[in-house]
């Protein structure tokens, strides 16, 4: 299967025009510079073909500001008071083709103004792989739109610095893709000129080859070759690229001395000179992404009967206990830690009728013998620390969430499979060991989540509602074949053989293990869309946090808590793209494109509100 690119989507053309019109009045020109080459004897010489070619801006600042104001007026955006920086922001909701837009913008800028040198800076390996995969799949499409204009695209690799030299000397469009991690470790590289002895000392101390002279770049620092081209930087998700308080990513990009920074993001923290905006609400109202719905996964008895867990007892300032109770919170119920003492009525504490006539009795705080007496109609219970009254089965909530995800999946599969649409579901879990475990010899075994998944899948597979999906399926093996995990991988020697072990990842996308995992994910992207591929349910810890976008994800189940808005946006974003059929053609309409989110209460509320005006 090959995914189709659509060349005439109005909102994408508007985003491309907004950036290109910044340079209205710019001459078609370039700058040239000399590039030295180191001979075998160590002598530096200038060869005929060692002429560097770079971008050149001829517009004055006031002309650029005038263009910026015209664009902002066109799109109803607040005008910039001054040209404080050469940073320009395009906000586009995840799933609306942000990567395609900036790749096409590269070719349009070249066509109109002759710009040839572009560096795409991304925050993680996942996005790097995703961007390069898009370049590969869109190459034929772009050449068709731009009369076969030749271009070179490559992922920056510190072991292949000859590519950087070619980047500087080639007259063709050059697109270098790199993670910010490749440039945000400076060593002792300084901007100012110093004496030769200091230069040698810095050369020895700096570990990042980007900032060290190399034979492969003619004895020059790779960063100096890039600087000399005056590249246009395309920053994908700048809020993640620039870094936290240290701002190392921002400083690294400044050291590249770009002609300008084109910032593309779904959730920009700082909208430097906004030129185009398509937010979550706009994308939803224009039906450019899937509609989000929330599915509750209730547990029988989960919040429907009194629950009390004793956490601790304290003698300071009177004997009191800390307990967990199910508290009424707004329109819902949440499990909260509260402090209680002898005589407290739990109906008043929780504001819930299910606790009527439940009260706290004696609390004993002597070390080693702590307990709490819970009094209720018909008797009492004595809880020691860690014990609970009215608790549900461990993992009962997770079981119901997994079951609901499978049910939603099968319901959509019944409806969409006849249209040639492969349905995928994505689980985000809190620990890899809950999905996959290993014995002492490295043999694989199911963790709790995988075990529960297969149990619930088999139960639903024999349900009368889904018989049409399983008529010719061997149910003894089907459950094991339809799910898999994408995690960082460790290779370990076990019993004299090398085995691959799944492991938790910090989700930063910067390790070799992450790199291997993301390569696999991107290589399988189109394969996963085929109805001939049995894999339908994907488990991930954080490997699929960002950068992996498969258009046929219809269910997202968050089995781990998502604390920040950015985390929640990233995970939901994995399922927002409009789906495709077996011909790779994009299908539209909410009757087909609905993303179901199965998650905890706080996440559910966030998902419900994402596509609403606030």
Strand order of the largest sheet: 7-8-6-9-10-5-11
Helical segment count: 17
- Any idea what the radius of gyration is? 29 Å
Beta-strand proportion:
15-25%
Mean of pLDDT: 85
Please state the overall shape, judged from the principal axes of the Cα atoms: globular
Helix content: 25-40%
Distance between the termini: 40 Å
Largest sheet: 7 strands, parallel
Unreliable stretches: 38-49, 190-197, 507-511
Summarize the structure.
With 614 residues, the protein is an alpha/beta fold.
Q: Helices, strands, pairings?
A:
Layout: H1 10-20, E1 31-34, E2 37-38, E3 44-45, E4 51-54, H2 61-74, E5 87-92, H3 98-113, E6 117-122, H4 125-145, E7 151-155, H5 162-169, E8 173-179, H6 196-205, H7 222-228, E9 232-236, H8 238-241, H9 248-255, E10 260-265, E11 274-278, H10 280-285, E12 291-294, E13 308-314, E14 320-329, E15 332-340, H11 346-350, E16 359-364, E17 371-376, E18 379-383, E19 388-389, H12 396-416, E20 424-428, E21 436-438, E22 444-446, H13 448-461, H14 475-481, E23 483-486, E24 488-494, E25 497-503, H15 512-523, E26 537-540, E27 553-558, H16 565-573, E28 594-598, H17 601-610
Parallel strand pairs: 5-10, 5-11, 6-8, 6-9, 7-8, 9-10, 12-28, 20-26, 20-27, 23-26, 27-28
Antiparallel strand pairs: 1-4, 2-3, 13-14, 13-19, 14-15, 16-17, 17-18, 21-22, 24-25
Helix pairs in contact: 1-3, 3-4, 4-15, 5-7, 12-13, 13-14
């Amino acid at each position: 299967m090959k995914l189709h690119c659509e060349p005439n989507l109005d909102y994408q053309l508007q985003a491309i025009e907004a950036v290109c019109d910044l340079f209205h009045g710019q001459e078609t020109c370039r700058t040239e510079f000399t590039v030295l080459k180191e001979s075998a004897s160590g002598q530096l010489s200038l060869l005929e073909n060692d002429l560097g070619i770079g971008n050149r801006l001829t517009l004055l600042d006031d002309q650029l500001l005038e263009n910026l104001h015209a664009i902002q007026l066109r799109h109803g955006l607040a005008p910039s008071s001054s040209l404080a920086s050469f940073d320009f922001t395009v906000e586009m909701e995840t799933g609306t083709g942000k990567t395609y837009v900036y790749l096409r913008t590269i070719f349009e800028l070249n066509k109109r103004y002759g710009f040839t040198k572009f560096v795409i800076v991304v925050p993680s390996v996942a996005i790097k792989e995703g961007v390069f995969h898009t370049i590969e799949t869109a190459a034929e499409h772009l050449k068709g739109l731009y009369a076969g204009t030749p271009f070179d695209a490559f992922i920056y690799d510190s072991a292949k610095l000859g590519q950087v030299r070619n980047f500087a000397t080639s007259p063709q469009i050059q697109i270098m893709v790199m993670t910010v991690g490749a440039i945000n470790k400076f060593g002792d590289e300084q901007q100012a000129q110093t004496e030769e002895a200091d230069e040698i000392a810095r050369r020895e101390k700096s570990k990042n080859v980007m900032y060290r002279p190399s034979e492969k770049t003619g004895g020059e620092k790779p960063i100096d070759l890039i600087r000399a081209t005056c590249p246009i930087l395309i920053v994908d998700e700048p809020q993640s690229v620039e870094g936290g308080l240290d701002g190392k990513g921002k400083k690294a990009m400044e050291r590249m001395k770009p002609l300008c920074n084109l910032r593309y993001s779904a959730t920009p923290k700082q909208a430097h000179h906004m030129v185009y905006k398509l937010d979550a609400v706009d994308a939803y109202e224009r039906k450019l992404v899937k509609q989000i719905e929330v599915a509750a996964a209730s547990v029988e008895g989960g919040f429907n009967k009194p629950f009390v867990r004793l956490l601790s007892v304290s003698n300071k300032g009177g004997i009191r206990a800390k307990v967990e109770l199910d508290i009424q919170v707004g329109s819902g119920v949440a499990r909260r830690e509260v402090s209680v003492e002898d005589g407290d009525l739990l109906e008043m504490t929780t504001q819930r009728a299910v606790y009527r006539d439940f009260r706290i009795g004696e609390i004993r705080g002597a070390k080693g013998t702590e307990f709490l007496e819970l009094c209720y109609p018909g008797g009492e219970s004595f809880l020691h620390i860690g014990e609970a009254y009215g608790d549900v089965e461990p993992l009962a909530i997770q079981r119901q969430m997994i079951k609901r995800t499978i049910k939603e999946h099968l319901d959509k599969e019944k409806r969409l499979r006849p249209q040639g649409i492969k349905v995928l579901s994505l689980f985000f879990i809190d620990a890899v060991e809950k999905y996959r475990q290993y014995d002492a010899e490295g043999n694989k075994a199911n963790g709790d989540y995988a075990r529960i998944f297969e149990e619930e899948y088999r139960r639903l597979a024999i349900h009368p509602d889904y018989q049409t999906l399983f008529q010719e399926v061997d149910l003894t093996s089907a459950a094991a074949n339809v799910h898999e995990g994408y995690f960082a991988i460790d290779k370990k020697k076990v019993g004299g053989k090398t085995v691959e072990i799944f492991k938790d990842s910090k989700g930063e996308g910067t390790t070799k293990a992450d790199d291997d995992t993301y390569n696999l994910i991107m290589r399988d992207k189109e394969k996963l869309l085929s109805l001939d591929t049995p894999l339908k349910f994907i488990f991930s810890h954080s490997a699929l946090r960002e950068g992996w976008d498969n258009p046929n994800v219809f269910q997202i189940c968050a089995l781990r808590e998502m604390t920040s808005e950015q985390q929640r946006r990233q995970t939901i974003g994995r399922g927002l793209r409009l789906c495709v059929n077996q011909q790779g053609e994009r299908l539209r309409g909410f009757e087909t494109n609905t993303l179901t989110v199965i998650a905890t209460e706080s996440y559910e509320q966030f998902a419900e509100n994402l596509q609403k005006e606030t």
